[in-house]
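A brief tutorial aside. Many learners find it easier to grasp structure tokens once they have seen a single protein encoded end to end. The record that follows does exactly this for Tropomodulin. Read the sequence first, then the structure, and try to relate runs of similar tokens to stretches of the chain.
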Amino acid sequence: PSQLAKMSKHDPRDIDEDAILKGLSKEELEQLEDELQEMDPENAMLPAGFRQRDQTKKSPTGPFDRDALLDHLEKQALEHQDREDLVPFTGEKRGRAFVPKPGAGKIPEDEQIVLEPELEEALRNASDAEMCDIAAILGMYTLMSNKQYYDALGAMGKIANKEGINSVVKPDDIKYFPDEPPNPTDVGDTLKKIQKNDRSVTEVNLNNIPDVPIPTLKEIFQAMKSNSNVLSLSIAATRSNDPVAYAAAEMLKKNKTLQSLNIESNFITGEGILAIVKALASNSTLTELKIDNQRQKLGDSVEMEIATLLENNPTIVRFGYHFTQQGPRARAALAITRNNDFRECQRSHADVPIPSAYLCICSATVNKGVFTFFSPAVRQQRVR
């Protein structure tokens, strides 16, 4: 009898585990190890060897040759004859063939449309291509493909469809468009012209120039502080980050000429965007600002702050950003609409001085976040 069988008759509390383990044979130790292994056969994430106990202790019966096994299986498949059909097809026809009733498919006389003789003759003699164009003009787009429909609408006095309504739909040839050429702007030369306040430079476009160093972009905004000729500055897709945004914010506080700023498609975070929008409080000339498509989402709190700052800004008339929340989107839209309305009022009555009371009303509505829109008649009455 084994050592385990001997000790099972005693009181379990008096068992000495160390003595039992020392008295076990090699086979009994292996059996005990197999019993104590924690296996999880239901875990599909584990390999098969970890889901069950090892059962491959037998010596191999022979060498394994994969190519020989595949050749044997292929040979066996070719030698095996296909099984014949249990019920062979005899070609026998059962049942009755469908025969339509006489007169079926005709429109009843009370539902037939009577046209003028000239129109009936014209339709009777019309070709399939002409009928296809007529159906497109009448809006019967379900009778043809989209290409036939739009070709017929775009044709001016000509037959666009040559094959008729029941024509085979063919795909259009692929139109290859060449890639846009790289931005030819010389960054170094442009920086020198901005620093010299060159009058010939009124628009700076550095879009899609990914290798512009960050210090160079900061120098451009530093030079823009004292520039009085550049009206539009665009650095979209230049890999600009927050230090560039902070430099742009400092520039907006001192520049009194720039009207449009585009910093879309960059790596600016919400803090950098807020710094730029907050700088608008010290700027009265910028009318267009584009900040959309940054790599990092700005977040709800930043969007709410942007909407609040736009409500307190009377000059921005074009703001490029897609708000993700409905609340700040509506508030920003009202603020931009208010600014456009006030600018249109100034443009319409440029020769008439606007009373200070009207300006006070506008500033009060801006500060309180309340937007009042006046009709042209009321606006003209207030100006008078």
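Self-check: Confidence is low (pLDDT under 50) at residues 354-384. If you spotted this yourself, you are ready for the next section.
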